Amino acid sequence: MEQDKLLWCMSMNTQVPYNFSLCLQNGRQRDFLVRERTLKDGYYALSIRYHYSYKHFNIDPKPDGQYGMGVLVFPTIESIIQHYQQNSLFIVDNQHITLGQPVMRRTSKK
């Protein structure tokens, strides 16, 4: 997976919550996307659909070029995705929730 393919959805603007919810609304449980955060250039958020709502996790760049998510540090955003497709992102009712399939970027037609 290339990083370009990990940045899904539409360009960021004041309607970001509406845009990413549109991207995930027809998806399945555990579908996810990575998007740039609106108030911090170079910072990202991982959003996952779970039980008809969304959970969001910040991905922060580190000075050494790596990315932090929670207390863990990863060399790339792709490695974060791969890690959480195999390991629990969070736990609900003793059920370990991993990432499912990515929601791919929608291209706008002009």
Strand order of the largest sheet: 1-2-3-4-5
How many strands in all? 7
The secondary-structure class comes to: alpha+beta
Beta-strand portion reads 25-35%
Distance between the termini: 27 Å
Notes on the structure:
- The structure is a single chain.
- With 110 residues, the protein is α+β, with helices and mostly antiparallel strands.
- It is 22% helix and 30% strand.
- It contains 3 helices and 7 strands.
- The two termini are 27 Å apart.
- The model is unreliable at 1-18 (pLDDT under 50).
How would you summarize what this structure contains?
The chain has 110 residues and is of the alpha+beta class.
Any key phrases for this structure?
alpha+beta, 110 residues, two-stranded antiparallel ribbon, disordered N terminus
Spell out the blueprint of helices and strands:
Blueprint: H1 3-6, H2 16-25, E1 32-36, E2 44-50, E3 53-61, E4 67-69, E5 72-74, H3 77-86, E6 90-92, E7 95-97
